[in-house]
Amino acid sequence: MHGGELFENVIAFLKEQEADIVLMQEVYSCDDPTINRQYRSMQVIPGIIGYKYTHFSPSYRDFDRTGGKAERGNGIFSKYSLVPKDTVFFDGEYSEDYRDVSGQFGNCPRNLEHAIVQTSVGDIDLFNIQGVWDMDGASYSEKRQRMAQIVVDQVKGVKRAILAGDTNATPHNQAIIDIERHLNSVFGKDELVTTFNMRRKDNPGYATAAVDMILTSPSIKVIEKSCPDVDISDHLPLVATLDV
């Protein structure tokens, strides 16, 4: 939520979870120590939580909230070493012209961040997604078709892959079905009623929209999973314990 307006809540949740790997969207990166630390999440969180390795894929430079000092995008925090791979944009490209204001959200550059985490049992390909946006999460639009094809091209044939984040599409969207030909959803199609934090939403439509997802290669087994109802963002977090 704007990089962490509920920053203290985010920190408390991360401390409680003690997760090995965290994938975030709409996270900020900035080296200027004078700026509010919610806009320096990539720099601040590792020191507080103890994540030694990070990877950041910026989508745009934010002039609306940070005066251009910070970039916003997808970020990975890990207790295991990370090898950067690539960043692929679904629609558009990295921008210093985009303005994050009402009426422009559909034009926001959104990307798929890819890094490899190196563990004692082998490498795992991590794909951190923020999908293309519109107000109809069920629409199989041209942009979503392109998004699905990009994801498929990236994950097919990968031995151990974890795809997670905000797809901005509902589970029954054909775009998600396309991706599920290669990856398994951790949560069933109707298992989650919503992945939005309705404390922070006015539109009642969000109460029945589950757009945040975790998908994995068939070789990865799910041990535990949950969607905690916590007030850390306008979205709810997804948590999974996986056997790779």
Q: Could you characterize the architecture of this molecule?
A:
The protein has 5 helices and 11 strands. The protein is of the alpha+beta class and 244 residues long. The chain has a single domain, classed as Deoxyribonuclease I, Chain A (4-Layer Sandwich).
| Rg result | 17 Å
The low-pLDDT segments are none
State the distance separating the first and last CA atoms. 31 Å
Q: Give the biggest beta sheet.
A: 6 strands, mixed
Provide keyphrases for this structure.
244 residues; alpha+beta; Deoxyribonuclease I, Chain A; six-stranded mixed beta sheet; three-stranded antiparallel beta sheet; 5 helices; 18% helix
Write the layout of secondary structure elements.
Layout: H1 7-17, E1 21-29, H2 41-50, E2 53-62, H3 63-66, E3 70-78, E4 82-91, E5 110-119, E6 122-130, H4 142-155, E7 161-166, H5 174-179, E8 184-185, E9 212-216, E10 221-226, E11 239-243
Parallel strand pairs: 6-7
Antiparallel strand pairs: 1-3, 2-3, 4-5, 5-6, 7-9, 8-9, 10-11
